[in-house]
Amino acid sequence: MKLRLNDFTLQTRIALPVSLFIVAVVLGGAAGLALLDSQRVTAEVTEDAADREGAILGMLEITDKLVMDRVKGAMAVLKERGAELGPARLDPQNPVQVGERTVPQLMLGEEPQVNRFGLVDGLTRNLGGTATLFVRSGEDYVRVSTNVINAGKRAIGTVLDPQGLAIKAIRQGEAFYGLVDILGRPFITGYEPIRNPEGQVIGIWYVGNPLNMDVLDKQVASTRLLDSGFFALVDRRGEIRFHSESVSPELVASVLEAPEGWVLGESNFDPWGFRVVGAYRADEVQALWVTRVLVTLGLGLAACLLLVGMLAWMVRRMVTRPLGGEPGYAAAVAGRLADGQLGEEVDLRPGDNDSVLAAMARARGSIRGLMDEMRRMSAEHDKGDIDVVIDADKFTGDYATVAQGVNDMVNGHIAVKKKAMGCVGEFGRGNFEAELEKF
User: Fold this and answer.
1) Nearest 5°: phi and psi at 28?
2) Sign of the alpha-carbon dihedral angle for 65, 71, 72, 77
């Protein structure tokens, strides 16, 4: 069976097209917003990752600056105190045993420094941190005076890492300042060449402050991305220094090695050669987007239902309710009135007094009243009482005009009949001269 719009009630015929338009506009807009939200979600996650990376970088910068200022200040003091002792030189004629190595004696003026700790200890006693004097021995630089402790003893006789950044700078005759692992511990350090009066590099001035990484560890550990993401601090050797406590170090290592299915972002902290790496699963962003799409569509659907409900209420209040009765009843009554079927009473409900249906009930009453008056008049005339007419005062407007018109028509016919009967009476009395008046 094929439904047509006319098969529905008036309320439905009015509300249905508008409701469909509302649904199309609202859900279409919600769908459009949902599609745009895909880019917005990705941008939000990317921005959040960048902000958190920035916070970690900010902590690195603050830590580096505070400690580096102390290191540079201590280096200036160490060199100044060394210069006060006199120019630096090596005395190869008096080699000295340092640990398992034999090195030339380092002289500052007339003061030997190998296995002497007054200069380095005096510095750290005043300024903290650690200090060391290195002596060049072949291609190596050996600690000959230091308060760096290794296994409970001064680390004399040990050599500067031949593969490290510091020795590369020194071999080029340049100073080095930066993060260095010394005997397994991170230090913010300064290395500057010790030169003899001829300008040759014969050793190294060193000062350093151990780096307390607890604050960084806590900050990185407490930082995460979404539910499965993480942050990690990776040093220049690729070792993971710190990572979010929400993930295992094995997961971090596997993601950094094979990031398939993950989105990675990183920022470099050049002074230390560190990388701040942020990672999150791509499917988690997709799931977040799907959730937001469903919420958006759900809100759109709720808005549609609300608008359609309001529309139905307004149509009922402004259109169908003023008609009165149940939906479609007023149309049925109007149809009966149009077809002249006035026998059935109009069923009015409470609240229908000012409705169209009530007006139709009054129209029906007026028409039936006029018809009843005409029947009464006809019945009385049939009985011989031709003076009976319709009581036009019972009606208003055009109904009263119709009633009066019927009365005038009937009275006119009666007047003609009376005159005709008068003329016939005259004929009966032999007065054939009587004339029938023209009407």
Assistant:
1) -65, -45
2) positive
